[in-house]
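New to this. Please check this protein:
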Amino acid sequence: MREALMVSTDELINAMLARAPVLRRLGYRVRIDITDLDESVLLDATGSQFDIRPASPMEEADTALRLSSSDLGKLMAGRLNPMIAFSTGRLRVEGSKGVALKLANLLDED
């Protein structure tokens, strides 16, 4: 039986805030679009004020990551590899792939 690990925008924001010291080093704006909830979160690590907040799916970002809440939950729990999610189409990247890769590497740090 497969477990559904759906994640809400609030859970995503709280998880990202917990990783703020690492994510501050990103230096870019990344929008995460949770496709099945029609919601988005913006991670803005471009200025001195680090910001993570709900956003419009039209808000400008260097990179947009699009995935379902279930796949996001699996990624956050370490049950889905980001590269596998990307290569199988479960994670779509719009904009800079390099920024998405840098984000994945930062999140892999302990």
Summary: DSSP finds five helices and five strands in the chain. The CA atoms of residues 15 and 76 lie 8 Å apart.
